[in-house]
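Hello,

Following up on my earlier ticket. Below are the three sequence lines again, exactly as submitted.
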Amino acid sequence: MRGAVLPISMVPGNSVVHKIAPLPKLLWAVGVLIISFSTRNPAILGAMIVLGLFLASISNIWSSFLKVMGILFPIMVIAIFLQSIAPAFPQPWTPIAQLGPFTIYQEGIYSGLTLFERTFSMTIFAMVFIMTTHPSDLFVSLEKIGMPYVINFILTVTLQLIPILQREFATVLSAQKSRGMKGTGFGAVLPSMVPVFVGAIERVQQMSISLESRAFGSTGKKTSYRNVVMGVKDYVIMVVGLLASAVTLYWIIVDKSLDWSRTMHFSPTLSVILVITAALIFVTFIVISVSKIIKT
Amino acid sequence: MMNTKEPIIEFRDVTFYYPISETPALQNINLKIYEGEYVAILGLNGAGKTTLQLCLNGVIPNMIMGELTGDVFIKGLNTRDYPTRELAKIVGMVFDNPEFQLTQTSVAEEVALGLENLGTSPHDMEEIIGEVLQTVGLSGLKDRSPFELSGGQQQRLAIASALAMHPEIFVMDEPTSNVDPVGKEEIIAVAAKLNQEKHMTVILAEHEVEVVAQYADHVIVIDKGKIILDGTPQQVFNQIDVLAKCGLRTPQVTEFFNQINQSKKLGIKELPIKIDEAESLMLNQFEKK
Amino acid sequence: MEEVLITCDNLSHVYSGGVVAVKEVNLKIKRGELIGVIGQNGSGKTTLVKHFNGLLKPTYGKVIIKGEETTNKRVQELSRSVGYVFQNPNHQLFAKTVTAELEFGPRNLGLSEEEVHERVEKAIEFFNLDTYRNQHPYRISFPLRKLVGMASIYTMRPDVFILDEPTTGQDNITTRIVYQLIRRLRDEGSTVICVAHDMILLAEVVERMIVMRDSVLIADTDPKTVFSDRKLMSSTHLYPPQITELSHRLKDKNFINTYALSIDEMQKVTDQQLQVKRSK
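Thanks for your patience. The regenerated structure is below:
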C-alpha cells in the first residue's frame, strides 16, 4: 500500500548541510524558487540544478532522494513532451520536426526544457531542505522570528498526523476489502473515507483533553525545549544566499540577452529523440504505478 | 481509612447531565478520597467512570458542555473556579488510547510539552525530563519518535508527560485496555510506583479486577451513574451478589471460594481476594482425600 | 474427518526492509475448529493470520484456502470463505444505520436483495441487535459497535471467522456475550480463529492454541497443555488466568494433581481430590 505515500520527510544524518540552521536553508530554497520563476534561461536554471544535486550529494540523502525523484521525475519529464507539441509561448512557432500526427516546434522544445528545469531545480532544493531539517527545529526558528506558538503547534501536529492518517487509511481499506469491497469506483469512497474521518475526529477530541490536562493554552511566557542556535556560519550562509539571489534577480531583470528563446536552436533529430524519451519515461512510469495499484 | 485530615478529593452531591441527555451520567455522587490512596473505579462501559474522572481536573464542567450540580473539590479548591490548565498542576491524567495523547516529534519533546506551557527554564526542563523518563522506564528513548514506540511504551510516555508537571493526584482512565499483556504489566507497575514510591494519590479506572484487588486500597463501584459500593477491596469484592447485579465480576479466586464456601459449608466470613490468600486458605481448609 | 480449510505450507513472510515476521510455519485448520492464536506484539501472530484471507501473501511457502493457493487471489474473492473482523470496529463502520452496515458485505458478494435481506435479519437475530437496527453505528456504545462489526462479517457467511481481539476494551457483560457468540458460531458449523490476549477466552472457550514467539510457531495444541507449561508461557510473557495459577501452586505443593482452566474445573478438582479438614 505504499504506492500512495511519498517518502518526503527528514532523513537523519550528520552532514554539513544537516548542521546548517533551518532559516538559512529555508532562505536558499525560497531564493531558488523566486529565481526559477523569474527566468527561462536554461543555463541559469541548469546551474541551480547542478548546485542542488551537489548539495544533495554532500548531505548523504541519496537513497531517499532518489526514491522521491523516481516518482516526481517522470511526472516533470512529461512537460517536455506536452510543451513541444503545444508550446506555452506566443506565436509564431517554428516547426522543426514531425512525429506522427504531432508537429514539434522549436519554441516548444525550449519551453518544455526550461519548464522541466524550473520544476526540477525547485524540487531538488525543496527536497534537500526537507530532508536535512528537523521539523521541530524549523518551527522553533520560525517562532523566533515571530510565528505564533499555536500555529507552530498546529503545524507540528499536522505533520505527525499525515503519516498516521495514511496508515489509518490503509487499515480501513484492508478492513473494507475483507468485506468484499471493490477497490475503485464511487462505492468505495464512503466506506474508505468515513472511518478515517471519524477516527481523526475521535483522536483530536481525546488529544485536546489530553493537551488541556497538560496546561496547554496557558497564558504567560512559554519556553522551548528545543533550541536552535544560529552560529556565525549560519548567518554568513544566510547573507550569501540573500546576496546571490538579489544579484541574480537583478541580472535577470536587466540583461535582456538572457532570453535565449529565439536564439537557441535545436536540431530536429535531437528534438525528436528528446520528445520520444520523455514520453517513454512517462508512459513506463504510469504503467508500473497502475500495475502496482491493481495488484493490491 | 481513619483520617482526621481533610480529603484531597471530595464530591458533594454531584449530578451531571451531558447535553441533550435525559438520563444523568452521574447521580448524587458523594465521595471522599484521602491523600496517598490508590483508588480503583469499577463499572461497566458507560456506567460513568470516565465522566467521574473528567470531573477531577475540571474538564467537566469547564471543557465539556453539560449541567453540573453539586461541587467537586480538589485540595479544597472548587473545580468550577479554576481552568483545567491550572488544575493540571495538581491532577495529572492519562486516557485509554495511548497514541491519541501524543503529538510531538520526539519523546523528550512530548514530556516537555507541559513544561513549555508553564514557562519552565530549559535547564530545569532537561532535569525534569530525565527524572520522569527514569520513573517510567523510558530513559534511553529520548530522541525516538513517539509513534515508533509500542503501545505500552506510548502509554508510559503519556504518563511521563503528565508526571513532568509534578501533580499530586494521578488519574488513569483504563490505561491498559488497548495495550498488550507486557505493556499492561509495565503500566500497572508504574502506577504502583507512583503510589508507593512517589506517594501520589492514584485513581485508576480498570476492568481487570484481579489487578484492582492486588493494588488498590480503596474501591468504588459505579453503576448507571450512581456509586453502589465504596470501601476497601476486601469489603467490595465480598459483595458478590451486588457486583453480579451490576454485571461485574470479582477476582476468580473470590468467585471460586464463594462457590465452595457455600457448597462445602466452610463458614468463611471474608473471602480471599488475592491469590496468596486463596492459596493459604485452601491449604488451611482442605486436605487430600 | 473434517475438511481441511486452511493450510500453511512452510509459510514465511518477510516485510520490505528485511524483517522476518513469520518463519516456516506449517499448520492445518479444519472446519469447525475453535482456535486461539497468541503471542506478544511482534511475535508474528497478526502477520500469520493476515495470510488467511489474503491481506498478506507468502514470501516463501504457500497458503492454501479451500484447496486453492492464495498467491494470485484477491482479498475480495477470499472474503467469501474467510471473514476478518478487525479489532477496532471504527475501521469498518461507515453507513448511516446498523442495517445498512450489515447489508454492505452481502451486497458486495453480488447477492439478490432478498438474499441480502434474509441474511441481515438472521444476523440481527443472532447478535440481538433488533433495538439498534436504525441507529447510526457511531451513536451506539463501543461494545455494541464491536458486535455490529462481527455481525457485518456474519452476513457474508464465510466458512472461517477471524476475530482480532474480540474482547479487548470490553466490559464483563459484553465479554461474556462474545464468548457465547463464539461458541454459537462454531455450533453453526463455522471455524473461528481468535487472535487474543484474553486469558479467560483462551482457557475456557477455545479448543486449540497456536502460540507464536519471535516469528516462530512454538506450540500448537490444546489449552490445557499450553497452560500447564509454565516455561512456555513465561517465555512469551503470557500468564494463565488466576484460577489456573492457583491450581499450579497447589499442584506444585502436591496438594492436587491436575490443572484447572476455569472456576468450574477447580470446583470439580476440589470435589474429587480434596476433603474439608476435620481438625481446623
